[in-house]
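Note to self: the last two entries modelled the partners one at a time, which told us nothing about the interface. This time every component goes in together.
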Amino acid sequence: MIRMYDLIEKKKHGGDLSEEEIHAMITGYVAGDIPDYQMSAMLMAIYFRGMSAQETTYLTMEMAHSGDTADLSGIQGIKVDKHSTGGVGDKTSLVIGPIAASLGVKIAKMSGRGLGHTGGTLDKLESIPGLSTSIDKDRFFEIVNETGIAIIGQTGNMVPADKKLYALRDVTATVDSVPLIASSIMSKKLAAGSDAIVLDVKTGSGAFMKTLEDSIALAKEMVAIGNGAGRRCCALITDMDVPLGRAVGNAMEVTEAVQTLRGQGPADLTEVCLQLASNMLFMAERGTIGECRAMAERAMADGSAVKVLADMVKAQGGDPDYIYDTDRFAQAPVKREVQATADGYITHIDTEGCGIAAAMLGAGRIKKEDAIDYSAGIYLHKKYGDAVKKGDVLAVLYTSDEGRLAAAEEKFLSSYTIGDAPAAEKRLVYARVTADGVERF
Ligand code: URA
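The predicted structure of the combined assembly is written out below.
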């Protein structure tokens, strides 16, 4: 009989766990036979000792099959999924999903909620009055077949191993580990059933992986797992050293996503979305990357992509007028301008700190059971590289609860560094990882 104690001991000394041992560990944990304290010790051992590519694949497959898996054969056409490793101001799914769907790609997407300092697509969508992300399978398929896209929460009993493990990692400081992130994300993507997967692996101060090399290692691992499971898979390594776009907070991010779909969004968000959308179209065999980019640009310019978002919102029970007229979103009753404390240039943003400040205003959850204040958030007027004068407005903080302002302002201000010299230029997309290798830009 396999004992969890022996597995912890083995991993503690850097040994490789076999397929049989990983099977016993995951089934035992999901069944409740292995307690959290033993799994916590194992997670920390994995955090320090790592896992081989083979072990990570075994772990991913075991997690993917720990519950129900989706059979998307009821949806016609090529189904392409997309997943981000998590960031601040990352509303790309709301832009690229509708672009790809408007061009005939089917997006049957299961998304998550905010985690720690990062936002979640479900929370953003639920800021649209009436919209539901909890939809039964038949209706989900119907919406994807009719509008090309639906975005819902994970249904029923999908990947219960990740639900339990993620909650445990969140409280045991074991989130930022390549094999644990790779298995968490890829188990969900494999269970969700799409034919192809585009991964947006974030790198920088607002990402779980803070360095480019760690992010590339994570991307390689995930792409290999996807390909090994018979799915087409590629990853872009994109910047999360600076929040993406200017809006951080749920309703504000929906507004910015709509502006971007109309071709009026911030330049950084627009560029990252175009590159991700081109890769989704490429994965669906719609042409070369260059041709796919031109198609994506046209879908933004001619209004077809924003119409798909409005149609999806309507099909999911939401009011599409909020997409056609984003001024309808209620503005938070309390707002405060945050000013620069010195002359100079913005030379660094602690993007994780910025995400935490938004959560403190009510845009995210500090505790798991917290309710979201959809109108809360931060609008960034100055970003990395901008020249500022003392007293310039760096950002405006929004909340429904005045009592949250002071601490959030302090957190936000401490996340900005103002230096004397202009900041070095940054890339938005660092590399593309495919089965053929790493292409650095
Ligand atoms: N997103 C996930 O779904 N899992 C992780 O481990 C990290 C980000």
